[in-house]
Design a protein that fits this description.
This protein is of the alpha/beta class and 695 residues long. The protein is built from 21 helices and 16 strands. Helices cover 37% and strands 10% of the residues. Bound molecules: alpha-D-glucopyranuronic acid. Alpha-D-glucopyranuronic acid (GCU) binds next to loops.
Length: 695
């Protein structure tokens, strides 16, 4: 009996090409493979190609020891191609770490400058076959647009994962360095298949123990495992480590002993891990130690580490996620106010890592105003792949749609066309180095991500890290085809479902620009009433400001003036009510309950109808999914169906709890078309989730 599909194979479970005529074409065009060259990366690429071709074409592919004149797949570095092929490809400018795939002189050729380029070329060629693209006239040049394409694991040394909803950490620290779990290899392979080339193994809320020699040996074993796949390892550095594990009396970045401590530490790391990527640092943020503890600045702290890393070509990813409990300024303004004046002061190997929006990974946020506002500093994007505020691994939400919205936002910082994507890939301000990070949603669950469809978010993040200009429909299409089926009756409705799923979650959680309405600590479920937490900006009431008059956060000139951190004409667009996008209305404006929206509804009615729409969108997702059983295995179908049932229940929970609570202020009847809440407000307030995962 065949085992049911359990999702472990991700998008790389190569299935035989279902289109008979295409299969015939592929078989004719690839009758054998010539793939010369020896290296650990090339060995991985060759093994992948063999696995993929055999499964996709249903043959045992011949790997020959010489090149022939036609119907062969030739995979070789440019310098290894014969003169005729080199001549044919003379004009092709292959990007660093990129590849070329083309139909050349009767053969299909995958070529690159670097070994890792060939690995990426192989994965992309296999994707073409998986997604059933014709290959007869191939002429495809591709390369990564961002240099460092990194996953951030928020994994703790005790095996828990902060904001992790897919089981425990993958890293078995106690068994390392000697025991290499097969999963590490499968993880690296999956990352390489989408072009991810770096991994931060540990939580930004860092533990200094990680930097002790025995842990560095463990990290080195992981680095050795990932290296053939083109993946570098990075670590989170706790700023107070010189005191905690180095027994110094200070961690002041200007203290020569502290500087020497970091230098020695870093030199030692590079002895064990010659291609170590560098440090990711959360400093003076949410209680973490940092240079400000010693009256120094973020620049002092980051540059001190950067100096020690520079001789080894390492980088510092210094996070801009800062806001202070002692500062009454609108939280949305604080990171900009603190970091923008430091533009130009960071060393070349410092990259300031900025979350996509100014608050915290909400279902929808306008792009962070820092993007484009620090032209002399390399800025990395930080997206969250794990769904801390979007239903954990229970709700189906396709995040590439959210990422795309941010990347394609125009900052106008250098005039029209100054897209966030151009800030990140370094092209807007001509940076030598560029980076993107995604907070991982991967854990020890059999299917890696908890929800089978959360795999699409790992995949999609990787694809956008490679090319931040890709559109989310293409990513959805490719992932669906690679993971499940190429049948148009599946791909078309399911692409629509994935694309719509992002707007659905916005509608049933935080419509019209509302944000940060979730319950305390675990961040699951609604808690718009929460108002008594120690720090004002941790309370949902701080953000929605509902009162008898209306609702929303006034960030205009008469309010917190956060809007003025954006360049013109973006600022005016957000400031002027008539121009402000309605999906961000309450992010920027406090409006009366009877304010009229463009469709003629009052704000109150519209709020209720948006919540209802979110619920209805989940119902529509359920309906579509019911029709998909012919195209997916029974186990996946059942799993997703059960999860969608929960998602519907919880969408209703969000609608009911939020609308009942806001009703306390508006005192208006629920709009016609909004289903009546199932329980009382007190009931929703009484719900507690003390053991929710991820805390
Ligand atoms: C959020 C999240 C924390 C995390 C923090 C960060 O606030 O809830 O768990 O540590 O972001 O990004 O540093």
């Amino acid at each position: 009996m065949a085992l049911p599909q359990n999702g472990y194979g991700l998008w790389l479970d190569y299935k035989k090409v279902s289109d008979a005529s295409l299969l015939g074409d592929y078989q004719n065009q690839i009758q054998s493979v010539y793939f010369p060259g020896e290296s650990s990366t090339l060995d991985v690429a060759r093994a992948e190609l063999k696995l993929g071709l055999n499964a996709l074409l249903g043959t045992t592919m011949e790997f020959s020891s010489s090149a022939s004149n036609n119907t062969q797949l030739i995979v070789a570095k440019f310098e290894q191609l014969d003169q005729k092929l080199q001549k044919n490809l003379k004009k092709v400018k292959i990007p660093e770490d990129g590849y070329y795939i083309g139909h050349v002189a009767g053969n299909t050729v995958i070529t690159a400058k670097e070994d890792v380029g060939l690995l990426y070329g192989v994965f992309n060629f296999l994707r073409m076959l998986q997604t059933q693209q014709p290959i007869a006239k191939l002429d495809h040049l591709d390369g990564p647009k961002i240099d460092l394409r990194i996953l951030n694991h928020w994994d703790n040394l005790d095996g828990t994962v902060e904001r992790g909803y897919a089981g425990k950490s993958l890293w078995k620290w106690q068994k390392l360095p000697k025991y290499i779990d097969q999963r590490y290899i499968d993880y690296a392979r999956a990352n390489a298949s989408v072009g991810i080339n770096g991994t931060v193994l540990t939580n930004v809320n860092a533990n200094a123990w990680l930097l002790t020699p025995s842990y560095i040996d463990k990290v080195a074993a992981l680095a050795d495992t990932f290296r053939p796949y083109g993946i570098k390892v990075y670590l989170t550095a706790r700023f107070s480590a010189p005191m905690e594990i180095g027994h110094l009396s200070t961690a002041d970045p200007l203290d020569p002993q502290v500087q020497q401590w970091w230098k020695d530490k870093i030199d030692n790391i590079y002895k064990k891990i010659p291609d170590f990527g560098g440090f990711l640092v959360k400093a003076n943020s949410e209680g973490q130690p940092g240079p400000q503890n010693y009256g120094r600045s973020h620049v002092d702290g980051a540059n001190m580490m950067a100096d020690a890393l520079a001789p080894h070509n390492g980088v510092v990813l210094w996070r801009a996620f800062v806001y202070s409990e002692h500062d009454a300024t609108d939280r949305a303004k604080q990171a900009y106010l603190e970091f923008v004046p430091m533009d130009g002061k960071f060393k070349d190997n410092v990259i300031v890592q900025v979350k996509n929006g100014a608050i915290d990974f909400q279902p929808r946020e306008p792009f962070h105003p820092i993007f484009g506002a620090m032209p002399k500093t390399a800025l990395a994007m930080e997206f969250q792949i794990t769904q801390e505020y979007l239903g954990f691994s229970t709700h189906l939400v396709f995040l590439p749609k959210l990422y795309e919205e941010v990347l394609k936002s125009d900052t106008y910082q250098q005039g029209k066309g100054s897209l966030v994507a151009k800030v990140i890939d370094g092209s807007l301000d001509n940076h030598k180095i560029s980076a993107i990070s995604g907070v991982s949603n991967i854990g020890s669950d059999l299917n890696w991500t908890g929800h089978p469809f959360a795999q699409a978010n790992w995949y999609g993040y990787g694809r956008l890290a490679w090319d931040p200009y890709l559109d989310s429909e293409t990513i959805a299409d490719q992932w669906l085809r690679s993971t499940y089926s190429n049948d148009e009756n599946f791909v078309k409705p399911m692409t629509e479902l994935l694309i719509e799923s992002r707007e659905a979650v916005v509608n049933y959680m935080t419509p019209l620009g509302l944000h940060h309405l979730m319950d305390t600590n675990h961040h699951y479920g609604p808690g718009p009433w929460v108002s008594e937490l120690a720090r004002p900006e941790w309370n949902p009431t701080y953000y929605h400001k509902a009162d008898a008059e209306g609702i929303g956060f006034d960030r205009t000139q008469t309010g917190s003036d956060a809007i003025m951190q954006y360049a013109e004409p973006v600022a005016q667009r957000f400031e002027q009510l008539e121009q402000c996008p309605e999906n961000l209305l309450l992010w920027f404006h406090h409006l009366p309950w009877d304010y009229t929206l463009s469709d003629g509804h009052t704000l109150w009615d519209s709020l209720g109808l948006q919540y209802q729409k979110g619920v209805d969108q989940v119902r529509a997702m359920q309906k579509t999914w019911e029709q998909m059983s012919p195209y997916v295995d029974a186990l996946s179908h059942k799993e997703v169906r059960m999860l969608l049932d929960i998602q519907l229940e919880e969408a209703i929970w969000w609608k009911d709890a939020c609308m009942l609570y806001f009703h306390e202020y508006s005192k208006l009847p629920f709009p016609k078309g909004m289903e009546t809440p199932k329980h009382s407000l007190d009931y929703y307030k009484s719900l507690k989730h003390p053991y929710a995962p991820g805390i």
